[in-house]
Amino acid sequence: MPAIELDEQTHGKVIFAARVMGCTPSEVVRQLVESWSTEKEEGGEDDDGRVYAVYRSERVEGLFNPATRTLAVTAGPCAGQVFPSPSAAAMAVIQAVNPGRTTPNANGWSFWRVTRTGEELKSLRRAGTRTM
After folding, report:
1. Dihedral, CA of residue 82, residue 87, residue 93 and residue 94, to nearest 10
2. 3-class SS of residue 118
3. What is the spatial order of strands in the sheet that 113-114 belongs to?
4. Three-state SS across 70-116?
5. Neighbouring C-beta atoms of residue 11, cutoff 10 Å
6. Residue scoring higher pLDDT (45 or 29)
7. Which residues on neighbouring strands pair with residue 59, listed in sequence order?
8. pLDDT digits 0-9 by tens, 70-101
9. CA Rg, the chain, in Å?
10. Terminal CA-to-CA distance of the chain, rounded, Å?
11. Helix, strand, coil percentages for the chain (3-state, nearest 5)
12. Every domain of the chain and the residues it spans
């Protein structure tokens, strides 16, 4: 099997991502490579999946992967966590910012906004720029 050399810091990040995502380090690398090649092939745009949300004056940033439909929170409440859907990420952020809210249900496609355009994440589905 071919091998790839990584510096210690990058190796640590891949191992951490694998733990968070519940997969192997090889799967993390495979998904990363697929997400970049899929974005370029499908959309043809210079879009890196950056999204953000503002809830109760708290800004949260993340990366949406259109190939897997996962959302990784990169800054703000829940930073470092990867969620299986935009809605799961939105609910976790709401719960973290407002723990007193008894029902943190949210539609992630409306909660998150595309950083590049400011439009709701669901605009990517409407525009047909990604296979969702």
Report:
1. -160
2. coil
3. 82-83, 70-75, 58-65, 50-55, 113-114
4. EEEEEECCCCCCEECCHHHHHHHHHHHHCCCCCCCCCCHHHHCEECC
5. 13
6. 29
7. 54
8. 999 999 999 999 999 999 999 999 999 999 88
9. 15
10. 32
11. 40, 20, 40
12. 8-127
